[in-house]
Amino acid sequence: MRYQRGTFPDEVQFMIREVKKKITVPLGIHVHNDAEMAVANTILAVKEGVLMVHGTVNGYGERCGNANLCSIIPNLKLKIGKLIVSPTIS
C-alpha cells in the first residue's frame, strides 16, 4: 500500500489495524483534509479503537485544513454514542 496525502478511510483502517498488531499503547489520530476525508478518517479511527483525536474548530489548519471538530464531536456523541470527554478530567 502506498501512503500519500489524501488517504482514504480504508487505508487508515488498514494502518491502524497494522499498528495495533505491533503496539499496545493508546493511539491518537491527527489528519489533514487533503481529500475531504479528515472527518471520515477520524470517525473510522475512533471506531477502530483510537482514543485521542486531534482537530480544529471548523477544520482550519495547514494545507487543506485539519479534521473538523464541529462535525466529529456530534457524530461521535449522537450517532455512535461515544463519551467525548472523560468525566475524570478536571
Could you explain the architecture of this structure?
The chain is built from three helices and two strands. The protein has 90 residues and is mainly alpha-helical. Strands 1-2 form a two-stranded parallel ribbon. Helix 2 (38-47) links the parallel strand 1 (28-29) and strand 2 (52-53). The longest helix has 14 residues, at 9-22. The chain is globular, with a radius of gyration of 13 Å. The termini are far apart. The mean pLDDT is 90.
The largest sheet is:
2 strands, parallel
Distance between the termini: 42 Å
- Listing every helix as H and every strand as E from the N terminus to the C terminus, the arrangement reads HEHEH
Strand order of the largest sheet: 1-2
- What integer is the average pLDDT? 90
Overall form:
globular
Derived from helix and strand composition plus strand pairing, the structural class reads: mainly alpha
Q: What portion of residues belong to β-strands?
A: under 5%
The Cα radius of gyration reads 13 Å
Describe, in short, the structure shown.
The chain is built from three helices and two strands, in the order αβαβα.
Could you give the topology of this structure?
Blueprint: H1 9-22, E1 28-29, H2 38-47, E2 52-53, H3 69-79
Parallel strand pairs: 1-2
Salient structural properties:
globular, two-stranded parallel ribbon, 3 helices, single chain, 90 residues, mainly alpha
